[in-house]
Amino acid sequence: MSQPNTNSHDHHDHSHDHHDHGHPHAPPAPDDADHYDRYEVLLQTAIRELLDEKSIITADELHRQIDHQDSLTPAIGSKIVAKAWVDPVFKANLIAEPLKTINESFGLDISTPLDLVVLENTPSVHNVVVCTLCSCYPRMLLGIPPAWYKSVDYRSRVVVEPRKVLAEFGTHLSDDVEVRVSDSTADLRFLVLPYQPAGTEHMSEEALAELVTRDSMIGTALPLSA
Amino acid sequence: MSDRKVNDLGGQPAGPICLDEHPTTLHEKRVDALQKLLTGDKLQAFTTDAMRRAIESNTEEDYRSMLYYDKWIRAVRDLVIEQQLLSAKEIEDRIEVLRERHKQTGSL
Amino acid sequence: MSAIPPRPGQALAEGTSVIVRQQPPEPHCRTPFYLRGVKGEITQVRGCYRDPSLLAFHKPGLPLRVLYRIQFKQKDVWPDYAGNPNDTVVADIYDHWIDPIAE
Questions:
Q1: Which residue, of A60, A103, C8, C88, is most buried by count of CB atoms within 10 Å of its CB?
Q2: Over chain A, what is the mean pLDDT?
Q3: Where would I find the beta strands (DSSP E) of chain B?
Q4: Phi and psi for A215 in degrees, rounded to 5?
């Protein structure tokens, strides 16, 4: 591997909100001219231009792929969870055959070489997901993972001290709950199906989806209450 | 310890988890899209497993300190060369052209 | 996409107690260090997949490997585990990294 450019330091505007709502994506940040001298930006541009010139990946194909990726947000996952909360038959089918059920019920066409597993939270089991070896994540349902999910600290700590990590997210679980950490080491991807909060039984599917945060589908948070 | 690879982090000492987030930048989206298309059904230039393998070839220090998408684009570079889609020379030559373009025009 | 089902008799049954092997990792390895030598239980047989350690080098990844979801008690993984003794970790491990053990 070529040597890293150790002078580079990426300064992104940090949003201090915790983006754990399934609301629509913000518009892409404009190219920051100050960063054009970073090796990796130059490298990306060089590879992109060369592949386009050789018609291996055209600029148009790249744009379409970016647009497709932009369309994948946690709102997709939230709708699925909300439907599972109101419809017990859907929920059973979702757990038994996740991708087939999602594609049929929502008219989607999520085709992927990967397999989806739905992990149901109950009063006695709380699921949380990690990829200790890299950053595997159910992108087809939740979009791009947050930086913390990909961080060395989360990947190192959540398998060995999950309750302490969850507490850092403001999530406290009682001792009679089993915390079950799923490490995505292969081609399975995991969606946590959060436990429906008390007092929400009367709510519409649409309103329930608003309670289902991205982090509750990873397992580091509980869904919002009514 | 050679039995634990640099990416094999479960249980390793670590610190507080930074919860800051930023919207994905255009550069990051382009890196993501490039690797998705190169590993996708149409091109099958290389596998996601190969991407992971390339990223795991970093030193422990680099693996832990480098930006996420920097590791990805460097792995893409290694693999397009390994699979002979592009040569190291033509990539580096183009980077020099881009540096010059940036110097002259302020953009790429 | 569903994985290819195992051949009859190819896979260990759900509920089987297993131990993760302690062997040198492949150049690309998907069995985490922290689980090696640890005993667990097969909770799901997830079908057959190409071997990622070979796919990583542009090889076909054959023969197919059975993939198992294996559940471990945290107190078996970490000697000083401080949480609830019922806490668990589940990982997806390929057949050439586990051996069945007598309970």
A1: C88
A2: 88
A3: none
A4: -65, -25
The mean pLDDT value of chain B amounts to 95
For C80-94, how does the pLDDT look when each residue is reduced to its tens digit (9 = 90+)?
998 899 999 999 999
Check A2, A15, A55, A136 and give the catalytic one. Answer: A136
Q: Among candidates A16, A19, A26, A20, which has minimal Cα distance to A213?
A: A20
Which H or E run contains A168? helix A162-168
Query: Whose structure tokens read 């600029």?
Result: A59
Place of tokens 């507080």: B16
- As beta bridge partners, residue A98 has none
- Rounded to the nearest angstrom, the minimum Cα separation between A103 and chain B is 20
Tell me: the pLDDT tens digits for B37-52? 999 999 999 999 999 9
DSSP letters of C40-87? Answer: EEEEEEEEEE--HHHHTTT---PSPEEEEEEEEEHHHH-TT--S-TT-
The band of A8, judged by pLDDT with boundaries at 50, 70 and 90, is: very low
Check if A135 is active-site.
Answer: yes
Of all residues in chain C, the percent with pLDDT exceeding 70 is: 97
In this complex, the residue of C28, C32, C33 whose CB is nearest that of residue B52 is C28
Residues of A in contact with C86 (CB under 8 A): 178
Give me B108's structure tokens.
């790429």
